[in-house]
Amino acid sequence: MSKFPVKNHNVNRFSSRPTAAVKRPRGPRKVVIFNKPFDVLPQFTDEAGRSTLKDFIPLTDVYAAGRLDRDSEGLLVLTNDGKLQAQLTQPGQKTGKVYYVQVEGAPDEAALVQFRRGLELKDGMTLPAGIEIVAEPEWLWPRNPPIRERKSIPTTWMKVTLYEGRNRQVRRMTAHIGFPTLRLIRYSMGDITLQDLALGAWQEIQYP
Q1: pLDDT of 89 strictly over 90
Q2: How far is CA 117 from CA 11, 12, 127, 158, in A?
Q3: Which of 69, 108, 123, 196 is the catalytic position?
Q4: SS3 of residue 131 by DSSP
Q5: Residue 2 has pLDDT above 80, yes or no
Q6: Is 126 exposed, middle or buried (0-12, 13-18, 19+ CB in 10 A)?
Q7: Where is the composition biased (Polar residues) (predicted)?
Q8: Active-site residue, 69 included
Q9: At CB < 8 A and 24+ separation, what contacts does 42-51 make?
Q10: All domains of the chain, ordered by start, with CATH?
Q11: What is the mean pLDDT of residues 55-61?
């Protein structure tokens, strides 16, 4: 059980995308959680020599369920089970993903309402999303390097719940309502959370 309780926002969500047929692995199922640091790619190889999962996780038969961009931090779930990957990532499964987001500026309720109703981005309308202003999480680790803050502009922490996973979606959505993302941490995918995992650490878990 996580010592940091998390509850997905209760929003209306829907998707018309079909769910592809997937199979369970032939061998034992593996589910790994990883607390990804900033500036680490969510993959095991990189021809440019950048930091990857291989620098932290000595496994070869698991793959990331969804992406977590190089400049984002927090929970990455890896598994050899295609069915679980689909359950966690396909919009039709309605699996909530919770992020803690630090933005530049101070969003008002009107901006949050836009976010909750869905936003028209270049790749189409987003699903309704949960969003609320929160205090900076007490469990949060320092980022290396720190974000660049401007003394004349305040920053705000928000908790965001998404039910889809488009490319850089949270960042594009906060920018759309006028508040650029400075820092982005994924805390949970469904009922899988970071627990108390240290930054850069991984752990194999039992999952139903």
Answers
A1: no
A2: 9, 9, 8, 16
A3: 69
A4: strand
A5: no
A6: buried
A7: 9-18
A8: yes
A9: 42/67, 42/68, 42/69, 42/70, 42/76
A10: 25-91+192-207 (3.30.70.580), 96-189 (3.30.70.1560)
A11: 93
Q: Can you read off the two tokens belonging to residue 128? A: 């309704």
What are the tokens at 204? 């194999």
Asked if 186 and 197 count as a contact pair (C-beta separation under 8 A), the reply is no
How confident is the model over 85-110, as a mean pLDDT? 91
3-state SS, one letter per residue, for the chain: CCCCCCCCCCCCCCCCCCCCCCCCCCCCCCEEEEEECCCCCCCCCCCCCCCCHHHCCCCCCCEECCCCCCCCEEEEEEECCHHHHHHHHCHHHCCCEEEEEEEECCCCHHHHHHHHHCCEECCEECCCCEEEEECCCCCCCCCCCCCCCCCCCCEEEEEEEECCCCCCHHHHHHHHCCCCEEEEEEEEECCEECCCCCCCCEEECCCC
